[in-house]
Amino acid sequence: MDTPPQLRSWPKTVRDSMTASGVRYIGMAFELGEQRVRIVLYVHDPRRNLAGEDLLNKANAVNTMAINDVPGPADLGTVSLRSPETPPWRVYWIFRNVFAEVTVYRTSISSIDIARLIQAELARNVRTQDKIEAELPLGSDMSGMREKQAVGQ
């Protein structure tokens, strides 16, 4: 995934790993003084897509009684939420089998602008389950495909 243009000169830390449940975690943290931007992607196996559960868990985890987050931009993924303040410091959404989140802290960089750039990357690189199955040779074992199904692979 390309670094958003607004963040190219910022120091970056990247973590790319698999969780115990087989979900690919891609985390990028950018820090410049007190300014911080964090981008997190959870890439689920398209055959057992649980990205929607991640969205609900995130929405419920930050609130005690009700979901205070508000709908995000309509053009961001299938479903998106954002923190209620303006400008929002956090936006998160699902797109196909990916749960994505952008968080900003003490910066004038827009979480929505970064999210739209990430969404464009996802739209170009995340394949649908039908496309993955069409690419497999007949009789192949899909269990070894997990790494290849991830973003940009």
Q: How much helix, percentage-wise, in residues? A: 10-25%
Main sheet? 7 strands, antiparallel
> Which stretches of 5+ consecutive residues score pLDDT under 50?
129-153
Structural class: alpha+beta
Count of alpha/pi helices: 4
Give, in order, the helices and strands.
Answer: EEEHEEEEHHH
User: How much is the radius of gyration in Å?
Assistant: 16 Å
The average pLDDT score comes to: 81
Question: What topology, given as strand order, has the largest sheet?
Answer: 1-2-3-7-6-5-4
The total of beta strands comes to 7
Oligomeric status: single chain
Shape: globular
Give the DSSP E fraction (strand runs of 2 or more residues): 25-35%
Describe the overall structure.
It contains four helices and seven strands; from the N terminus they run E-E-E-H-E-E-E-E-H-H-H. By secondary structure, it is of the alpha+beta class. Strands 1-2-3-7-6-5-4 form a seven-stranded antiparallel β-sheet. The protein is globular. The termini are close together. The C terminus is likely disordered.
